[in-house]
């Protein structure tokens, strides 16, 4: 589906951010091994600066019963390849924020995956109406390589900001850098501004 207009880059389209080229197919890209899914041990947690002061935990079954929606969006890897037109289905971050509200002082979130991979986001980026905790792609469950059972999709940021094998959202009252942000990558990661590296953060 194509949408014309100035918000064209906000939906899945053939338009790519500067310096990106289209990948062939949908290659798998991540650091480290693919974790094994153990349904009885799996849960999704929201912790840190919650409004209630307590953490929220969903089992796999409970999580699967939460409201879900479809978002069409691209993945832009900061190494320069993009894959486009992904039809994601999952829990909107806005719904998670209602189910597990952050404390008023919360300004950032840390998205945590298996094995400690993490990515920090401004609360406003996490709260985008297009941010999704995706469980499905193209009408099918995510594959293990692409993040089963849940991955975070933040369409307006480079895709390292979207952990596959997501396990927790931590609300933070101050910013803290995640895995790639600590290793020379940009703290915000807007692909339309080519915010790839931390040395670009000066201004
Ligand atoms: N848990 C985890 N999630 C991750 C990564 C990772 O190393 N570990 N890599 C990120 C990066 S850099 C990219 S480009 C995308 C790639 O997702 P894909 O393999 O589905 O295209 O996953 C992101 N999510
Ligand atoms: Mo990437």
UniProtKB/TrEMBL annotation:
Organism this protein belongs to: Actinacidiphila epipremni
InterPro entries from the UniProt entry: OxRdtase_Mopterin-bd_dom (IPR000572), OxRdtase_Mopterin-bd_sf (IPR036374)
A Pfam family matched in the record: Oxidored_molyb
Residue span, Oxidoreductase molybdopterin-binding domain: 32-180
Basic and acidic residues compositional bias, start-end: 1-11
SUPFAM superfamilies attached to this UniProt entry: Oxidoreductase molybdopterin-binding domain (SSF56524)
Lineage, highest ranks first: Bacteria, Bacillati, Actinomycetota, Actinomycetes, Kitasatosporales
Superkingdom per UniProt: Bacteria
Protein name as catalogued: Molybdopterin-dependent oxidoreductase
Chain segments carrying region Disordered: 1-25
